[in-house]
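Pair request: fold both.
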Amino acid sequence: MFSVDRQSFQSLSALALFTFAFLGSEFFFDSRIGLLISAEGVVGAQAMILGASVVGFLAYAPISKLAGGRRALRAVEAVGAIAALVTIAVAESALAMQIAGCIAFFLLGSLGAEAHWSMARAFEGSPSLAKGAGAAYAAGILLQFLSNQFVPAGMADAAVLCVGVAALAVFAAAGERDDESVGQKSDGTTGEHAGGTAATKSSRQITRQEQSIRASLAALTKTGRPEQAAADSSQQSAPGGAKTAIRAVWLLALVVLLACMFSTLDNVVTLANAQGSISVETWPRLFLAASGLAAGVLFDIRERRYMGFIMFAVTVLSTISILAVEAGASPVIGLIVFYVSSGFFVTFFTTTFLQLAPRMRTPQLWAGMGRAANNLCAFTVSGVSMMLTQSGIAAVMIASLILFVLVSVAFVGAGLFRLPSTVGEREAIQAGLAAAAAPTPEEVQAEFISRSGLTPREEEVLRAVTADERPLKQVADDLEISLRMVQRHLTSIYSKTDTQTRAGLTRAFFGK
């Protein structure tokens, strides 16, 4: 699987707790307001709170920047969300519940953005990013399942959710403390944790080097011109570069289109749950956790090169499940297929934007953009998708086919159908990595001087006598010192560097 240090564990816990608190609060809100309004009204009310969560996600970056101290802000957000959840539990009017729900989900959106940003920082450059995203999602789903199974509805349910929100704020704040402490460790000698952090940063730098080399190879394949390839790869890998921004737009479009497809099924599930024909918190929900874990493992194969192909196959399955449910297939079978596809979808959009965020100009905003785009789509198209689900099989089939075509175009535009690298490309990548990891001539010379303990004047003499084959008398004239002084320094240099001749000294100095 993958190793987890303290920072990774805290970020995983924060994301898992966000999943639990968000989905649990959504179900709690639907159940409470469903006692006061119609099943169709529940879908609209749910859309409103999802829209509030989108605003919270987008507001996280500017609010954190203005607030300065993010840990204090997390505490305020947690207290506000807890108060809103308690209000939902005790309110007797639908309007009060709706207002409290919007407040709660705005604050949960901001807390969720912090959880995603913490995850992006902890797993930047990691080959196990998708596994981490899938594991966090599965853990949150399991927590929600256990809560639904063993915690009585009402105030007890609200209390558990409040504890989850408080724990989310604590783990998010802990991740911020780790970032601050790592930033304060500048000498690299502060113990085992600092060493682990340095190693992690080193591995992330290698990963960025590999990405740059791959970009150069791809550009060279297209252009056949090394100088143009270098320019293209620099534009693609630079933070906030044009190609990165274009890919981000395509990925947003893809997530929105996929969310439209899943929103239709989600509304079917929400409506059926409100009517009492199915129960979404019982055993089929475990397929969400299992599919999230499976998605993480499958997506991370060969450093996520096949992630696009796998998600496209799942999209085909999702399209079929929409048609099957509308055509009268068993609701439980349709629910299971939907949950399996949903687990893959959540892991996909979470991983995609966690991976993209560090390359954007405002990474705090983009880390949770997948969840924000999903919620935005659910908010904006809920009414349309509800009418669609009630319009019959013909309308659903036409809409599904149109969505499928648009999704296919977005997959291509986002570059998710790129085939894995060839054997030659992989060998070139390895050669490039070896070259990137090798010390530069300047680093070799600086290390030689430091190891030998040469004085500044001896360093001057060393560089002069190894630069070319000038006679020592000319070296002395160039350095404006006597020949005897040059010979005396050179004798000291020979002794300190364990060399005996000028040629041997030159070879040692240049690492040959």
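--- second member of the pair ---
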Amino acid sequence: MITRLLVANRGEIARRVFRTCRSLGIETVAVFSDADAGSPHVAEADFAVRLRGAKPADTYLDIERIVAACQAAGADAVHPGYGFLSENADFAQAVLDAGVVWVGPPPESIAAMGSKIEAKRLMSEAGVPVLPSLSAAVTEFPVLVKASAGGGGRGMRVVRDAGELDREIASARRESEAAFGDGTVFVEPLLEGARHVEVQVLADRHGTVWALGERECSIQRRHQKVVEECPSPGITQRIRDELCAAAVRAARKIGYVGAGTVEFLVKGDQVAFLEMNTRLQVEHPVTELVYGVDLVRLQIEVAEGKALSGSAPVPKGHAVEVRLYAEDGDYLPQTGTLRRFEVPGDVRVDSGVEAGSVVSPHYDAMLAKVVAHGSSREEAVRKLTTALRHAQIHGLTTNRDLLLKVLKNRDFRAGDTHTGFLDEHDLSGTGPIDELAVLAAALAQAAANRAAAPVLRSLPSGWRNVRSQPLRAVFHEAEAVYQPLPDGIELITAEPSRIVLERGGVRHAFEIAHYDGKVCVDSPSGSVELTPAPRLPEPVEQVAPGSLLAPMPGSVLRVEVEPGDRVVKGQAVLVLEAMKMEHQIAAPADGVVSGVHVEKGQQVEAGAVLAIIQEGNA
């Protein structure tokens, strides 16, 4: 019987496992890197062990240090979470060799599926449909380069031209090596327009295997899922039965025990095996809500030797999950301090952060998963949309607006999704800023100025004996005249943190938060972040024309050019690594490299000058 469990992970999944452990009366142990010392998962654990360092290779990927932490804390069980070492057979074996319970499948099962190349061979033997693996002499495109180890979109590249293949294979190898310690990759045909559908399996040591339905995970960016739902809205019952039967055969083929996921591509009546994830998936909450189970609890009970009771539970309703990331409109990860984090409504929020948390460049940029369950898909989508629209997320740029656009999209509402959804639908634009929100920010700023005034606070902000000009608030994003008010608008409440305006007989309430150099405005219509423009701007450091700036903090992984080299538009100049992903910095135009300001291995901050390209034939 498990009494003290260590989670060999961080953030959201560590907190998720801890929650179930508390309900079962199991003590918890966290491990943490230097960068995570102040993270919520550390504070919530009963015990915590520091892993000195910040890089994943020195901390969460170090098998010896995590096993030593387990022994130091007196843990009698280890849960790997997802990512990091969760699909590392050597880690599972090391835990077992230390006399500790491994809350996961046998090392042999992990090893069998740990190599996607070997996994495809085994699945073919089990009668599971697979795509062919291609030799190095690829002749037909597009193709997909995939890491043989790990998942989460890392080490995966779409290649549409033979001239790109060698470069993308090399890049995929490096990224896979950095993320999983294994640089093996393979190539297979790209099945465009297909759905990404996966089946949740759960097996005990007594021969029972459950298939807990399917999840639709087609909406992705950078080959990473951002919206998931259960059940899939776009497959027939015949395909559903075929997927579940194939998933059970896959689990039985490798003697699987515990929770796992078998992933497929589905296009019409064509089904093809993608991979098997021998761990709990990020998107497991949608299955839990639809099937009324706690998958972590079932994992623990199976690890304790208990049998699954009876047949699999019956699904009820529909659940939709979105992944909330700290990233900009180009999917580039963002770092910094999260000032406020509140998501209201009838939704489940699994988060690794809270107000005051610092998002570092060392790890994945996911802040939280927001999940809604309803009696129908429409109800679940409506709940989720409302919760995101009312959420207050301050201090970091996030993908919240993108998620809202997806949820409101006509094709998504119709269930017409596939892995190229975000490429097919241009959802990147920000749209016009709400004029009332800008006016509310201006009025709140004026109210804050009056509240802070040392004398004559009762006078209106900006009061003059003789008014000659309207009072105007200028932000970098927009501006507003707030005295006199625009025609048809009445001010009902004016406080530094709350503004109520009435227009056309309808009142609109705004919550305002002020931070250093930022004003955040939240309302039922959405959120706006504004940057007040200073009256007397400070001199800013000028950068040379043609400068390539770092889009985010990171490490220089590779420099592809030298001063004097000629480059063409789109050519790789250097590659940054941030949050375990490679980010290529390309030449914006044809020209000559007039300077390279960084070297391999150097850490850079956002906005740092990396290189300078002089356009033309200089």
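Observation on the second member. The first strand starts at residue 4 and ends at 7.
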